[in-house]
Amino acid sequence: MTSDARGLHFATVAHRGRIWDAYLEMDDDPRHPHSCRARLRFDSPDGGEADGTYRTAVIIIEPSYEEALAKARAFDERQLQALLRSVLPGEDE
């Protein structure tokens, strides 16, 4: 598991013949200082369409960073594929 300035890598998922890295991105919201809010970011290492990066809305809200990370890690491959499909343009499945 690795992290960069924009998020923490927590999974890798395959979709339509491409490999995608999934990252947890924290959303610092001053209106909610006692909760940890996060979105998922999907990056395609081989580039491709646009910049190869797609994000969900904030979908994880937990009391702590550790619980937010545990929630992200709890997604199985099928769920991550569905979330990825939901943010990719032109996905009509």
Short précis:
With 93 residues, the chain is of the alpha+beta class.
- Count of individual beta strands: 6
**Sheet/helix structural class:** alpha+beta
Q: Helicity level, as a percent range?
A: 10-25%
Helix count from the secondary structure assignment: 2
Number of domains: 1
Write structural notes for this entry.
The chain is of the alpha+beta class and 93 residues long. The protein has one domain (3-87). The protein is built from two helices and six strands; from the N terminus they run ββββββαα. A hairpin with a 2-residue loop joins strand 2 (7-15) and strand 3 (18-26). The radius of gyration is 13 Å and the shape is elongated.
Q: What are its keywords?
A:
alpha+beta; 23% helix; six-stranded antiparallel beta sheet; 93 residues
Topology:
Blueprint: E1 3-4, E2 7-15, E3 18-26, E4 36-43, E5 53-55, E6 60-62, H1 65-74, H2 77-87
Antiparallel strand pairs: 1-2, 2-3, 3-4, 4-5, 4-6
